[in-house]
Amino acid sequence: MTHTEARKKAEALAAQMTIDEKCSQLRYDAPPIKRLDIPAYNWWNEGLHGCARAGTATVFPQAIAIAAAFDESLTEEIAEITALETRAKYNSAIRHKDRDIYKGLTLWSPNVNIFRDPRWGRGHETFGEDPCLTSKTGRAFVRGIQKKRDGYYTAAACAKHFAVHSGPEEIRHEFDAQVSQKDLHETYLRAFKELTEEGVLGFMGAYNRVNGEPACASPALDKLLRTDWGFKGYFVSDCWAVQDFHAHHKITATPVESAALALNNGCDVNCGCTYLNVLNAYNEGLVTEECITEAVVRLFTVRYLLGMHEKTPLDHIPYSVNDCAEHKKAALKAAEKSMVLLKNNGILPLDTDRLESIAVIGPNADSRSALIGNYHGTASEYVTVLEGIRRTVGDKCRIYYSEGCPLAADRAEGLAMSGDRISEALECAENADVTILVLGLDETLEGEEGDTGNQYFSGDKKDLLLPESQRILLEKITAVGKPVIIVCAAGSALNIDDTKADAYLYAWYGGEYGGLAAADILFGKTSPSGKLPVTFYRSSELLPDFCDYSMKGRTYRYADPENILYPFGYGLTYSKVICTDMVVTCDDNTLTVNITAENIGQTDTDDVIELYFDTDSADGTPYPSLCGYKKIHLHKGEKNTFTLNVKSTDLYVYSDTGTGYIDNSASYKLYSGTSQPDKLSRQLTGTECIERDITEIIKNINS
Fold it and tell me: Which residues pair with 29 in a beta bridge?
């Protein structure tokens, strides 16, 4: 069904509704209209990394881990499975007359906010700090969620949170994000614009204001979205964000005024209860019936596009596709491709034939919470790192296990003294040939306001350090003098002292099979190939104020190199891939970049070709910006050529007015490699990027 056909059906249906009935359909928990055979529908469902909050489903790695894979085809596969399981569970729920929350087809994902500050608790819901990576990963996610089957969308994706939203969580309900037009268009809006081009069916507004206007009722943002970008889908408020207008932002005086302000500025459906006042707003002359009708039409257009009011072949997708063996296999593959090897002195991969005993120590070693992140479903099986190592090692080695310390508390038993698991952990490390120390966080320490139990109860981190209990454990275990491998399960950048460790694997929140994936990497069943989607900093004290939304000093494009511990785009493999040649041609405002890469190491491996552009334009970023990437696989000794296509808009610089353009007065360069072209990446990887001057090609594009 086309959008035009669906809208015509929606218009015809809306024409039969009374004003009371129309107003009732603007709630997220829309009631039935029995006389028109319209069933109840709850718009609120989640699918960030698998069908969430509705029972058993495949749990994929958290969104930040998906981004770390730098793999659009993998992202699309994850999203397609998520949508398929969502549809299967929807069909099942409908058969059982269950129209509850989290049972619908409108998934409020992906989160394409920019992870601009590592202290933001919800950053692991995003695709990282870079506009290019976020855009391409987001587009692939939308393609997967909204894959058409028999003419209907499997499910509907939703781009959130529009816009300029990335903490602090503690004050999000009253915060006004002040941002320049350059940063707005260069960084914060790019992914939203590209997801509109991809045909995303939904947008969700943010809690905060943007330059004084509430994001869920912003004339400027509404014009940008509907008029400039041509978005035709539905717009939903973040949950209880419209209530914030009068309760926290103080820009309206009553719920009636708040409902009218949101509806008049393009917010079609309210997640919350403020739209219970829409009819009152209509009766008081604050909103017109035409405005209400338009919102209803947009909402039912989406419902028709999903085939919700007709018999379709999608109705027969069986519940059995949910959590099936094929989907579990995909979850394991995704976890393996996402993990990032930050350090390796040669100890990895481990060889069980050379080991008699292994110590597995740490609060996240046997933690299911460290696998899932937030906005997750319930897996039918979880494999922790400890369990994954046991499966891999079998009876070849003795495994010693100790929790070592709680995740954040100073003791495991309430009546014990501080550090009550340290002596056990030391004994394990002393008896083992090697220690795998599994540290990090989970969703109780970084996440959404109201959902976490950290020191602020806000979800944000106060710094980049591990909890003190884990820092003590790390210091004591590395002091034993035996080889130590750190595995970190977390969703954001941490500054872990790995100077005394022999290897360091960042496992993120790896999903239901995250522990098995970590073991597969540690013991060489697969070569790691993930890259950092965020910058790891030396200290949060050297970052700008958390409330400052200027990009100056933030992310790899603007940060002080002296404050970078591990760079964006960095990650090791068990082999060594280098780029040996790059040929650039241009046709129809698109650059075709053919890059030859060679695996000069001794192991077959995946890797990522990364493409960066640099310009001396006064409006350019201080450091080169990612403009393309491609996940590749090369056997040892293999050389192959890979093609990346770069749109001219991917090379835009942005003026202070927010205008993107090609600067004909400037020079342009491209760099290709398996990392950034910065000094620290060269030191860490031992490889160089290829450089090409493309100034004349760029000028021809713009002529």
Answer: 42
Residue carrying structure tokens 């750190």: 486
Does residue 578 contact residue 598 with C-beta atoms inside 8 Å?
A: yes
Evaluate whether 507 touches 514 at the Cβ level (below 8 Å).
yes
State how far the Cα of 433 lies from the Cα of 354, in Å rounded to an integer.
Answer: 9
In terms of Cβ atoms closer than 10 Å to its own Cβ (0-12, 13-18, 19+), residue 698 is: buried
pTM exceeding 0.85? yes
Burial class (CB in 10 A: 0-12, 13-18, 19+), 323: buried
**What band does 455 get if pLDDT is binned at 50, 70 and 90?**
very low
At 120, list the tokens: 């933001």
Residue type, 579: C
Angle at 62 between CA 57 and CA 63, to 5 degrees: 115
Mean pLDDT, the chain, as a whole number? Answer: 97
Q: Which DSSP string corresponds to 157-168?
A: -EEEEESS----
Sequential DSSP letters for 46-74: B-BTBSBSSSB---PPPHHHHHHT--HHH
In this prediction, residue 270 carries a pLDDT of: 98
DSSP symbols for 524-592: TSS------SSPEES-GGGSPPTT----TT-HHHHS-GGGEEE-TT--B-SS-EEEEEEEEEEETTEEE
Where do we find the tokens 């990027």? 689
- With a pLDDT cut of 70, the percent of the chain lying above it is 98
Percent of the chain with pLDDT over 90: 97
What span, in angstroms and rounded, lies between the C-alpha atoms of 136 and 156? 18
465 class by beta-carbon count within 10 Å (0-12 exposed, 13-18 middle, 19+ buried): middle
Adjacent-strand bridge partners of 106: 156
Specify whether the CB–CB gap between 288 and 309 falls below 8 A. no
User: What residues contact residue 332 under an 8 Å CB cut-off, 6+ apart?
Assistant: 513, 516, 517, 520
> Which pair of tokens denotes residue 501?
């460790």
Beginning with the edge strand found earlier in the chain, give each strand of the sheet holding 158-162 in spatial order.
Answer: 158-162, 202-205, 234-236
Whose structure tokens read 């929790």?
403
| CA–CA distances in Å: residue 329 to residues 60, 321, 493 | 10, 13, 28
Do 75 and 144 meet the contact criterion of CB atoms below 8 Å apart?
yes
**For range 507-536, the mean pLDDT:** 98
Query: What's the confidence (pLDDT) of residue 550?
Result: 98
| Partner residues linked to 27 by β-bridges | 270
**What is the set of domains in the chain, with CATH numbers?**
3-321 (3.20.20.300), 325-566 (3.40.50.1700), 577-702 (2.60.40.10)
- 368 CB contacts (<8 Å, ≥6 apart)? 382, 384
pLDDT tens digits, 176-220: 999 999 999 999 999 999 999 999 999 999 999 999 999 999 999
Q: How far apart are CA 470 and CA 425, in angstroms?
A: 12
Q: Mean per-residue pLDDT for 270-282?
A: 98
Alpha helices in 367-407 (DSSP H): 369-372, 385-393
Residue 78 near residue 316, CB atoms below 8 Å: no
Distance CA 278, CA 298 (A): 17
Q: How far apart are CA 525 and CA 517, in angstroms?
A: 9
What does the alpha-carbon distance between residue 640 and residue 57 come to, in Å, rounded to a whole number? 38
Q: Which two tokens stand for residue 260?
A: 């009218």
The residues annotated as belonging to the active site are: 238
Q: What are phi and psi of 212, to 5 degrees?
A: 95, -20
Rounded Cα distance between 648 and 586, Å, is 10
